[in-house]
Design a protein that fits this description.
Helices cover 41% and strands 15% of the residues. The chain is of the alpha/beta class and 399 residues long. Helix 3 crosses helix 10 and helix 5 runs parallel beside helix 6. Bound molecules: pyridoxal-5'-phosphate.
Amino acid sequence: MPPTISRIIQALEPSATMAMAAKAKELKAAGKTVYDFSLGEPDFTTPEHICTAATDAMKAGHTHYTAAPGILELRTAVARQYHDRHGLEYGPQQVVVSNGAKHSLHNVFTVLCNPGDEVIIPAPYWVSYAELVKLTGAVPVIVDTDEANDFKLTPEQLRAAITDKTTILLVCSPSNPTGSMYAPDELAALADVVIERDLTVVSDEIYERLVYGDRKFASFATVRPGMQERTIIVNGASKAYAMTGWRIGWTLSPVKIAAAMSNLQSQETSNPSSISQYAAIAAIEGPQTCVEDMLAEFTKRREFVRKRIASIDGLSCPDMAGAFYAFVNVKPHLKRSYQGEQVDNSSQWCLALLEQQNVATVMGSAFGAEGYARISFATSMDILSQGFDRIEAFLNSGK
Ligand SMILES: Cc1ncc(COP(=O)(O)O)c(C=O)c1O
């Protein structure tokens, strides 16, 4: 019999953000200038002192297997960082370092989910959550949220989605794709339902360092007594330190869950790259001015993007509290024709914008929210400025 693909893998959706980035790359390779707003990673290169730590590690012979959950020094540094920034007490045995936060999420769901369990995922959601849940045989339960509430799940919406099969609530704050962030009291109100219904929270805090103005980030584990014991925090080096290619993410969790994830990881991938781990120590323990500098640059771009969106008739987006995305409502610009091309949904809108103006964005439908487009401002001011001129020209051409 010829090889066949398993039913579980056949049911996986390809990553739409990566598909859009690939299409943009194709146009670039054909010599076109692409105004690429589809990126989910900082456009900065990794700060120099972090790169130096990596080459130093190589020269010092740190080129071997490490402990499966990562070297003690890095796990201790991660625990210390959560203590210093959020007042949470964790020991290194509660930290598991993996090949990026995406891998951490895979570990979490694989360790916690049984087939048939329900995992509540508020929409719009980051593209991989539902697919990673499906891989375990558990069921992602997508709960729509309202733009009027900056796409934040309310306790009522959470309560209505819970069944006797629900085991996990997933929360991403600040959010990819919406950029919105829960206030501490909003998380506390969700925590009350979580505690009452005896759920576990998976809290994706990867954009925690990229928060704008005087808004204050709160870790889900801190918002009510007892929440730390029922929360698995996912975080990593990718976004805060411009280290997406190094593949370092981590979890902080109760010891029993950390031990199970370490066991899983030891069988699946062993340790994440030893060299990247040493680089991550330099990132966490070294000067944080690099994070501040990147945040200052993102802040300027965010302000520019916010103003441009507000100035274009029929475009709007929720409060961009954190991360580097604007989640733009394009509904008033659908069901129109652009240079003879009929555009009825967000996918057609994004494709027409790419084909006609070389501007790459990602359709809201990829994040479970039809009628929106995600614009990443992890790109230069120059590209942003020219790209927005092109978006405006595109919208003006719609009839
Ligand atoms: C919300 C969110 N979680 C996790 C990840 C994965 O990060 P990593 O590159 O560390 O795997 C991403 C990357 O885009 C993300 O946006």
